Fold this protein.
Amino acid sequence: MKKNSIFKGLTEDEIAYYYTLLNEEITNFNCGTLCAPKNGGEPFCCKVENAVPFLYKEEFSYLKKQSDLWSVWEPKTKHEIKLKKNSETEDTIFCKCKGVSFCERDNRSISCRTFPLEPYIDKRDVFVGLVFMKEFTEGCPLTNRPKEIRQEFIDSHFIFWEKLILRKTDEFETYKKSSKSYRMSREKTGKKFVIFYPSHLKDKSYILKYV
């Protein structure tokens, strides 16, 4: 059964605006050069076998008008069928692109542009920064090179996520839950995780007791 949301849906104008916020490069170099050599020549995040892009349906509609780069992803295995059934919502859909050799930078999806970071919600239920997606720490080499992440990328992506989670309350709840799991893991293992703060929150010691 598909999950329902109270989200009324983005407009194509919003999608176009969000893309302008997500144009910053994550590093000062092509990060795909770190993982492609050990991944059949393709960046880890560009192989649908590793990470299936999750698009908003309005986003997919917008991109289809711009290019033939994207199509609906069709699951092939029992695991993939279950993933599709349990993960897609009334406003999201799994899609695939034609592959890294056909990549059109201007027509990358939100999930492509934001990978491998996601929002971090502190103990006050306040969005304060970005963290690496836990499920991809074994595949994306940037998770071991946090200093390579550009501050400009963090700042613009923070603005994007702040706007989106105000519009999409169910997504806020998702990240609130995942952030709590990061803290629980830290308490259990003693292993800290990196939080990427936007410029206006960097060096603000008062928030440390809440993260």
The longest strand covers residues 92-97. Helices lie at 12-21, 32-35, 57-66, 78-87, 110-114, 151-167, 169-189. Residues 12-210 form one domain. Strands lie at 54-56, 70-72, 92-97, 117-121, 127-132.
